[in-house]
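In this section we walk through a basic example: taking a raw amino acid sequence and producing a predicted 3D structure, encoded as discrete structure tokens. The instruction is simple. Fold the sequence below.
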Amino acid sequence: MQAVYLSGREVEFREDHPEPESGSHEVIVRVLCAGICETDLQLMQGYMGFAGVLGHEFVGIAESGPLKGKRVVGEINCSCFDCDTCRSGLPTHCPNRSVIGILNHDGAFAERVAVPQKNLHAVPDSLSTDVAVFVEPVAAAFQILRQQLVRPGQFVVVLGDGRLGNLCAQVLNGYGCRVMAVGKHTEKLAVLDRLDIETTLLTDAHPNRDVDVVVDCTGSPTGLPTALQFVRPWGTVVLKTTVAGEQTLALAPVVIDEVSVIGSRCGPFPDAIAALAAGQVQVEPLISGRFPLRDGVEALHTTASQPVLKMLLDVCDS
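The resulting token sequence is shown next.
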């Protein structure tokens, strides 16, 4: 089958990659559309040391199981559901897990991908495939609410005007926070301006250390140091950024100001699907372009080198 494969830091299109083999609790999904994520770009820089088929944001058709023939999206953590961590209610942190397109599991930049049946969610008929491909990153934005890291009325700064920053700003604004998105690209911030969400260029921002919660979606090692310039004493910094390589930071400000620094990763798919179905999160303005799977390598390099939002890969016909 056709696939986009990462080995080391080299990514290539393969015409004859082996078909996925499904385990006893897995379903083969025929991929319709997949989205390029910042994590994919970090994997290309050596993050996680991953080798395999990239891609973890996808919509496809289940080829077996209870959802056979239906459009589906899939959660990315493939957990054992048998260890103490899983039984405690934290399967996304299962020490035995693989992660689709990220850790020991081929991803969705391919004609087919194997996904645990438990991970699949049906896509409502009312959602287009282009909208449904955003379920995974929208769910990641909703994880901030699930972790109860914000309250309505709080002043929240979202650092980063890219794909995830945009979605986090929309979700937090819809929750009732007073949101300001801070970024480096006027054209990206304009997408949020049109949704009546306050924005400012980083060069025009004047941190007063009066922000209740700062969400780092920069995808850059500079995100956390910048967040600490904005957050108030006893405030919270939510880290959404994962970057390749080591990060160094003087942590004295965290101690002195008693700042909570909390990681936030994958989130609830049902909440994301419901919000998208209700039109509470607008994602189609984020689509900057689309490529056929055969041109996936070009799509990845374009995303990495140009100030675009979301690039989609058209994989199979519906």
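Looking at the output, two observations stand out. The radius of gyration is 19 Å. The CA atoms of residues 288 and 308 lie 6 Å apart. In the next section we compare this with other chains.
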